[in-house]
Every structure is written in C-alpha cells, then in structure tokens.
Amino acid sequence: GQNIDQPTEMTATEGAIVQINCTYQTSGFNGLFWYQQHAGEAPTFLSYNVLDGLEEKGRFSSFLSRSKGYSYLLLKELQMKDSASYLCAANAGNMLTFGGGTRLMVKP
Amino acid sequence: SAVISQKPSRDICQRGTSLTIQCQVDSQVTMMFWYRQQPGQSLTLIATANQGSEATYESGFVIDKFPISRPNLTFSTLTVSNMSPEDSSIYLCSVEGVGGEGELFFGEGSRLTVL
User: Fold this and answer.
1) A96 touching B (Cβ < 8 Å)
2) Beta strands A18-25; A3-5: pairing state
C-alpha cells in the first residue's frame, strides 16, 4: 500500500526559515508534489520533484531523495500569509496519494 | 492552468437526503477527479470520472453511495446519497494541468454539513 507521513503542525516566526518533511513508502513512484492550502480554500500547486535534488522557486524550495523515500519543503523569509497547510503527495501508479498535511502557523 | 467552478459551495443537508455537486471546467479534459477532505484531514480520492465510461472508484467508495456523471469533457457531477453526519466533508473536483508537470488543479470545494 501507500504510506505518506508528515508532521501535523509546525510553528515558526515571521522572517525565519522552516523545513517541512515528508516521508513516503509507495510502489511505482514517479514523483512528489507539494501543495499549499489556506483555510477554507482549495489546494494550490507549489512544486513537483521527479529527480533527486533541490529545486528552488523563489522563497520556496523542494528537495527529494528517492533512495530514502524522503522529501522536504523549505520556506524562507517567512511571511504571515504563509500560514497554511502544506500537503505532500506521492505520484505513484498514475495516482496521487496525499499525506495528512502539515499546518504551519507563522507568528510575528 | 484550468479554471474549475463547483456548486454548491456549501450546503446544510438533512440525514437521509441526497445532494448533487456540479463541477464545470473551462477547457476539455479527459479525466476529472473527485476528492473528499474530511475535517482536519487530507484529501482522499473518491473516483476518477472519464467521459463516456463508468467512473473508477477507489477502495472504500461505491457507486451506489457516490454516483458520478460525466456527460461531456467539461462537466461532471458527484452525488452523495442517503447522507449521514459522517458524510460531512469538503468535496473537491480536480483536473490535471495540460502541458505542465501533471499537477492537479482543484475547484474551491463544496462544504457539506449533514445534520
């Protein structure tokens, strides 16, 4: 079966850096998505990693290690508006399996 | 990116009734996906809707409870039948991006509360 794990909640300070980890166990793994979901809104796409390594998109970066079944999302220069849930999702067998989401609270 | 409209955005329903959620996409897509997001939890795929064929349901979801229609390439409906309080959830329609990285685009969801 598929298993995706990520922390339930994290708290960080405005202006700081936070790393949200995600571990996965899947068969037929193709890649790893990260989505952001603000309360009461639909999830929006942040990144997709297929190959090992770090991909940077502005303040957000995502890392993947296929051999370790591990990914992280790195958020720099945190802003209050970054308070949201962050969902990792493994693309395996042409199907997306979502983790439980990490609720990030950014404090002043 | 795709623009996805869902309605109703929210509803309060009585136990035992059924409600149909509509999903309209601004472009033709092969597959449309229906997800459920229960309070405080992540997204669970209910079924994949293909135009011209029966929907494919994931483990734990059955057609009698969640009938789906897909009459054309831009529209789908999901019905939640014989509702109980356990069906209180957000139901999201989604489609794959075209020419992108295979990411999903989501509608804004339909928040159902069953009393």
Assistant:
1) yes
2) antiparallel
